[in-house]
Amino acid sequence: MADQGRVIGAADVPALLLAAVPRLRAQWSDIELEHADEGSPGGRLGYLDAGWVVAHLADRLAAGDTADFGAAFALIEDLIRRGDPYVVDLAVVGYLEGLQSSAVTQLGLDPEAFRPWLGPKSVAAWESLIRFWGASVPEGEIE
Predict the structure, then answer these.
(1) 86 CB contacts (<8 Å, ≥6 apart)?
(2) How much is the pTM?
(3) DSSP labels for 5-73?
(4) What is the pLDDT of residue 5?
């Protein structure tokens, strides 16, 4: 990725995303205006964008097509490493937690199937999310 020393802001994420996963470009026009919001960081509803990407990645995993995963997860790792505070939260909560939850469970996929593509910072965040949600459920409520 270009300019490794520069902090990544919310406005940078869409272009980085489309560069990392070019096949998303064909559908970007479906959400580009829908997720635009002047009052949000970077002028976009970044968590809605993240949900859209998570759904794409989950669908690709379900189809056995992981060709884009190396670049997609390298970007998520870079967002965690070099993002401003909003972008780090977006990467962890929007992308990683999204992969662990709704889009994955709706397709009946094991979230751990994504683990091979996680970088070191992503693994740390992934495991932190697992610990957080495990501690959030009162004992005896999980069967």
Answers:
(1) 9, 10, 41, 46
(2) 0.89
(3) TSPBPGGGHHHHHHHH-GGGHHHHHHHHTTTB-TTSGGGB-HHHHHHHHHHHHHHHHHTT--TTHHHHH
(4) 80
